[in-house]
Structure formats: C-alpha cells, structure tokens
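Record type: monomer structure entry
Structure origin: computed from sequence
Chain ID: A
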Amino acid sequence: MIFDRLTWVGFMIVALGWALLFSTPQLAELLASFTGRSMNAGYLNLPTIAFCTILTGFGVAILGALQTGFGALNKFFESVLERTSKSGANSRANRPQQPRKIIERGWLKDRAYVLFMDGSVEIETMLGRRLFPLLQDAQEFIA
C-alpha cells in the first residue's frame, strides 16, 4: 500500500509518542536533575503528553490516508468524465447537425431527461446537463 508523506509524518509522530511514553520515568528524573525540582509535584504530566502525541499522530496518519484516497477517487471521476465526453463527441461528429425532434420527456431516477428522435438522450446530472448517445448509456452513468 502506498502512503503519502502526511501519513508517514503521522506514523513518525505516533512512534515519538510511544518513545516518550516508554521513557517517561527516565525523562522525569532527567528533568528533575536539570531543574532541581521534583517531578512528582505533577506540574508536567509526561504520560498525558505521550498519549496526546500518539493520538495526534494517528489523526495525522488518517488525514493523510483520506487525502490519498480522495485524490484517487478524484482521478477516477475525471477519467470517467473524460471518457464519456469523448464518446459523446465522437457520436456527435458522425451525425449531421440538424434540429433534433423531441420524442419524450420524463424522469430517470429523479433526474429529468429528454429523448430525441435520433435516440440520443439529454439528462440532468450532478455535473449539469449531459448528452448521451443512448438511453442505456445515460442509465449506466446515473446508476
């Protein structure tokens, strides 16, 4: 599985949190010797900081994975739209441009459509009105 940079940064933050959690007693002694204060007073709660670091790292890693996933989904939809626009352009290039006669108007899965004499269909999609060469192509696109 491929992870992007943000996911790896999240995993590194998680590793830092676990290292901080496992080394809390040693860090408490080290800080106490440097500051001259006892760490038992509780003014710096290292286990809580470690747990928060671990949770933050997991959050960043999940955010990176979501970013990668939605980027792939966006590329998929762009390729589908490009493919459907090419097929529509090819079918329009083969037909002479003449006024199209409307045969039927109706609804297909809560979307308005217009069926023309040549068999092509214009339907309202989430991306605006689109022309399909056949009603079956429009149904496949909507489904």
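Annotation 1: The chain has a mean pLDDT of 83.
Annotation 2: Residues 68 and 74 are 10 Å apart (CA to CA).
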